[in-house]
Design brief:
mainly alpha, about 80% helix
């Protein structure tokens, strides 16, 4: 069953109940005699759909306002009700005057409605441009933030590299100092060994001299 109300383009009725499911988000809503609750859901959750429903309903109202069928009937009933004793010519003239006024009012209504539609379209275009500009600005800001982060990372990496080089240099200096200390230690041990050898050699020489002196002394003793 096709509904004349544009709201039903976005809702599906649940059986014979007073409930309907939104075609856009699958949420279930109840309604009684009107679709106001369903329309409120579109306004809160689906703005584009709500605007399309408003536009469709506005066009339907405008079509009803501009419809020739019933317009003259309403005007005729109104004129006759206002002046039931008027002649046929007076009634006809009154109907023509009221019809012209009604036509002018309808044209003004149509013009006003078209103006509002144009304003709405312009507003949507401006909003779209604004969103695009904001999106571009966000992209630019994101690129700048990315470049800033990359520069900070480069600086940190450079600092880390410099620290690593400094630590490497300090380690090399420490190794050199350690090697020098080891070398000095070996030199001292070598000198100590040399001193020990010299000391033994001196003691040996002293013993030899003592032995020679004893021999000399024994040789110089008088014979008995």
């Amino acid at each position: 069953m096709r509904h004349s109300n544009a709201v039903w383009e976005y809702f599906e009725k649940v059986g014979d109940t007073k409930k309907a499911i939104c075609r856009l988000c699958d949420e279930e809503y109840s309604f009684i005699s009107t679709t106001g609750n369903l329309k409120s859901h579109l306004k809160k959750k689906h703005e584009d759909a709500y605007l399309e429903v408003e536009e469709s309903q506005g066009q339907a109202r405008l079509a009803n306002e501009l419809s020739d069928d019933g317009k003259e009937r309403v005007i005729y009933e109104y004129v006759v009700a206002q002046s039931p004793t008027s002649s046929v010519d007076e009634t006809a003239n009154s109907i023509k005057t009221a019809t012209r006024k009604r036509s002018r009012d309808s044209k003004l209504l149509a013009s006003e409605y078209q103006r509002k539609i144009s304003q709405h379209a312009v507003g949507k275009a401006k909003a779209k441009r604004l969103i695009e500009e904001l999106t571009e600005e966000k992209i630019c800001v994101a690129h700048l933030q990315k470049e800033l982060i990359e520069k900070e990372m480069e600086e940190k990496n450079l600092k880390i590299t410099l620290l690593q080089e400094e630590m490497k240099h300090k380690k090399e200096m420490y190794d050199l100092e350690k090697q020098e200390i080891e070398h000095r230690k070996k030199e001292m041990e070598h000198k100590k060994q040399m001193n020990e050898l010299e000391k033994r050699e001196m003691l040996l020489k002293i013993e030899v001299l003592k032995a020679n002196l004893r021999k000399i002394n024994e040789t110089d003793l008088p014979l008995k």
